[in-house]
Amino acid sequence: MSRPSEVPHAKAPQRRNGKLRVAAILKAGAAVISEKGYEMATMAEIAARSNTKIGSLYRFFPNKEVLANALIAHYHEVFTTPSTNLIPESNRYPSPRSLISCWI
Asked: What is the pTM assigned to this prediction?
């Protein structure tokens, strides 16, 4: 792995289509890495799984390490978001089942 100062960052999409494309890439990347492991996952397979042209994938994620870092950041944000932000105001004291449904 590269040193943190040498690792390029993911390009943030500006338009709605770009945001949807990045979401699809992240979802496909998570699936492929989960199935095959980081070392065996390829950018070509992630592009194919997300129905993205390989050039578009590399525009947002210059390499697999940048994609993996984006996945880590995404899941870190998801799992560190206080659950109270996920619960509607009208349901101040939710049941355990409704709390779990917020995470699923």
From this structure: 0.69
